[in-house]
């Protein structure tokens, strides 16, 4: 009785094993077929991605190539050919000796101008945005939602609309045609965005943190400094990159409000391209454009991953 | 002098009244539990005591000082939050000492205090960790440590155990009770868990719709609930309510379909004003059991035939859902006593702790 039981068990086991083998074979074949198809799809995907990347990068490539040629080569050859004898002459001219309107010192002095405007403007607008966001999320007052709504309008007002009122205001304040005036304009214009960023980030932090700190005896600024600010680096990075790019790349406010002594690099680039004695120096134009774009590119290269991380960080709980 | 007195406190948000005149006074060292269903105003009451929300009317006094309009930091209170609200950027040490630092306690004293509290709560080995590196139970301890470090007049606990799993909750509950006994602190504790309320409290304040329903010791709340809401809210499974007619000062009748059942009225219960009228009988499940020898023949005990609908084995007891007329009754029997589903069995009603409510006002008679 016992033996037959054992026998039947073992025969059942072998049956199960062979069944298992056949299933395994089927799965393997299926996976092989599937992987061939998947390989193909993968290749198609990469071809599409590479094509897109090339189309996107082509203008940059053309600019870099032509900035390394001399003017004759551009004039005789094609814009799309590779440089025969690459040199950085155009770059150094763009930097140090090209004419921008009446002066011929390249774009270097305007680089300094731009930094003088961008750094304080970014710093001030970020600090104010953080404080605004802190108040609008953690210290709500009667009408604070309305206040926030009105502030958001600032994000949607086109530059052109505010030019004349802004010019009049700067005139009243005695800041017309000065770096200070331009900084003020950028701070005001940027504050809507920075407030939005910080407020939306802080709304995701638990309100009980503030309650706990209040009971612990901390006041408005102490809570901000000791509790809220240490939790803010992701959103600070986002805001700084955003503001830096916006203000660095700004042309309109720069050309209108800066005055002759504080022209930012974007305005200088425009002047450089539009100033020509004899033939157009495409190589210098392109080198200057690349130089002017360099700081924002550098910022993205070094802080880009924090930017992406920060944009999604609001979803993560602070506690 | 009361450690905390809440005098006629009212609070409205626009036209909605959340607190409708609350009066509570607790003594130094007392453990008060505020309990009620969600939306009853218990958390608002707590936040008002803490000063996190302002009140519309009334006064709040802590240790005799009127703090109705004082800032949270000037009230000498500490609070443990449901979400713990630990500062994520600080270590455990930083969390515990932050309040002391803000209050300008010198560093050596601060260190000593942190160590003392950490030893008390057995979290010394966690002092250098960040809250994110702690388990739920450890965070709970740190949150308590932060409150204890300041040694305030009153501790406020806002559903502190509701984020813990069942086992840890029981452990921490005992821990809080021990801590209270050891330190003799004054505690106001908000919960919606009636087991927590029963086990922890010196007195329980049952709230509903912004009104205080009853303020009494756990046993009194359980044995003599002020009204049907309190009776139904405290106790699990809840008290059974049966509509009965008072026959005489000694007996009442229950009509179940065409049948009439007689039950005795507990001694000392004066229902003489209700003779011939119907009232609501409240009887706890543990007072309806299988017939037991030692109670047989007692004057306040009576046996009825009930149909069993459902049994739930709890281990120590078996809960039985029975039917009496169109009414379902919860009974609690010894697991060794078998009952058959859909069969009639004998159940013993011990009326010694029965209570009666007015059917109109639902108030205890």
CATH class of the largest domain in chain A: Mainly Alpha
End-to-end C-alpha gap of chain A: 66 Å
DSSP, total strands of chain A: 0
How many domains is the backbone of chain B divided into? 2
- Cα radius of gyration of chain A in angstroms: 31 Å
Order of helices and strands of chain A: HHHHHHHHHHHHH
Question: Which percent range describes the beta-strand content of chain B?
Answer: 25-35%
Assembly state here?
heterodimer
Q: Tell me the distance between the termini of chain B.
A: 33 Å
- So, the CATH homologous superfamily of the largest domain in chain B? P-loop containing nucleotide triphosphate hydrolases
Largest sheet of chain B: 6 strands, mixed
Number of helices of chain A: 13
SSE series of chain B: EEEHEEEHHHEHEHEEHHEEEEEEEEEE
CATH architecture of the largest domain in chain A: Orthogonal Bundle
3D architecture notes:
The complex is a heterodimer of chains A (319) and B (365). Chain A has 319 residues and is mainly alpha-helical. Chain A has two domains: 2-67; 92-313, MetI-like fold. Chain A has 13 helices and no strands. In chain A, α4 runs parallel beside α7 and α4 (108-138) packs across α10 (233-249). Chain A starts with a helix and ends in a 6-residue tail after the last helix. In chain B, α2 crosses α3, α2 runs parallel beside α4 and α3 (107-121) packs across α4. Helices cover 24% and strands 34% of the residues of chain B.
């Amino acid at each position: 009785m016992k033996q037959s039981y054992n026998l039947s068990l073992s025969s059942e086991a072998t049956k199960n094993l062979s069944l298992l083998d056949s299933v395994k074979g089927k799965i393997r074949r299926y996976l092989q077929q599937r992987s061939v198809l998947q390989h193909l799809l993968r290749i198609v995907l990469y071809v599409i991605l590479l094509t897109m990347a090339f189309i996107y990068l082509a203008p940059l490539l053309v600019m870099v190539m032509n900035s390394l040629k001399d003017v004759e080569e551009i004039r005789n050859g094609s814009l799309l050919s590779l440089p025969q004898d690459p040199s950085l002459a155009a770059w150094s001219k763009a930097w140090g000796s090209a004419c921008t309107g009446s002066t011929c010192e390249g774009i270097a002095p305007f680089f300094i101008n731009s930094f003088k405007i961008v750094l304080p403007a970014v710093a001030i607008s970020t600090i104010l945005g953080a404080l605004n966001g802190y108040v609008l999320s953690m210290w709500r007052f009667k009408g604070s939602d309305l206040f926030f709504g009105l502030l958001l309008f600032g994000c949607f007002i086109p530059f052109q609309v505010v030019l004349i009122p802004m010019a009049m205001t700067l005139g009243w304040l005695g800041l017309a045609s000065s770096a200070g005036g331009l900084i003020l304009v950028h701070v005001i214009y940027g504050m809507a965005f920075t407030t939005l960023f910080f407020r939306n980030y802080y709304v995701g932090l638990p309100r009980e943190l503030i309650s706990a700190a209040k009971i612990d005896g901390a006041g408005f600024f102490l809570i901000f400094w000791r509790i809220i600010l240490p939790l803010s680096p992701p959103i600070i990075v986002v805001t700084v990159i955003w503001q830096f790019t916006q203000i660095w790349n700004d042309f309109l406010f720069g050309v209108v409000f800066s005055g002759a002594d504080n022209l930012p690099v974007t305005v200088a680039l425009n002047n450089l391209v539009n100033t020509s004695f004899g033939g157009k120096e495409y190589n210098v134009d392109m080198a200057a454009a690349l130089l002017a774009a360099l700081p924002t590119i550098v910022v993205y290269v070094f802080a880009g991953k924090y930017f992406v991380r920060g944009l999604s960080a609001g979803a993560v709980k602070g506690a | 002098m009361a450690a905390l007195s809440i005098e006629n406190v009212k609070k409205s948000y626009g036209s909605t009244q959340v607190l409708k005149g609350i009066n509570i006074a607790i003594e130094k060292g007392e453990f008060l539990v505020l309990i009620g269903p969600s939306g009853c105003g218990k958390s608002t009451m707590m936040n008002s005591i803490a000063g996190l929300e302002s009140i519309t009317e009334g006064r709040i006094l802590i240790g005799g000082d009127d703090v109705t309009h004082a800032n949270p930091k000037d009230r000498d209170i500490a609070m443990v939050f449901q979400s713990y609200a630990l500062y994520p950027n600080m270590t455990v040490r930083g969390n515990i000492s932050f309040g002391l630092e803000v209050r300008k306690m010198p560093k050596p004293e601060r260190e000593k205090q942190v160590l003392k509290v950490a030893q008390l709560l057995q979290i010394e080995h966690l002092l250098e960790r960040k809250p994110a590196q702690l388990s739920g139970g450890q965070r709970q301890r740190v949150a308590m440590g932060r409150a204890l470090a300041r040694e305030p007049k009153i501790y406020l606990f806002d559903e502190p155990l509701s984020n813990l799993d069942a086992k840890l909750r029981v452990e921490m509950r005992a821990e809080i009770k021990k801590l209270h006994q050891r330190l003799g602190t004054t505690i106001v504790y908000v919960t919606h868990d009636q087991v927590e309320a029963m086990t922890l409290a010196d007195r329980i304040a049952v709230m509903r719709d912004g009104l205080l329903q009853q303020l009494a010791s756990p046993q009194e709340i359980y044995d003599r609930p002020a009204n049907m809401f309190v009776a139904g809210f405290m106790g699990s499974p809840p008290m059974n309510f049966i509509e009965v007619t008072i026959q005489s000062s000694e007996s009442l009748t229950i009509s179940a379909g065409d049948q009439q059942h007689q039950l005795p009225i507990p001694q000392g219960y004066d229902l003489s004003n209700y003779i011939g009228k119907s009232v609501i009988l409240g009887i706890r499940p543990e007072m309806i059991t299988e017939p037991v020898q030692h109670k047989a023949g007692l004057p306040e005990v009576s046996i009825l035939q009930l149909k069993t609908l459902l049994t739930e084995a709890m281990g120590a007891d078996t809960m039985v859902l029975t039917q009496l007329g169109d009414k379902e009754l919860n009974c609690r029997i010894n697991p060794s006593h078998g009952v058959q589903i859909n069969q009639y069995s004998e159940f013993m009603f011990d009326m010694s702790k029965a209570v009666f409510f007015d059917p109109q006002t639902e108030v205890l008679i």
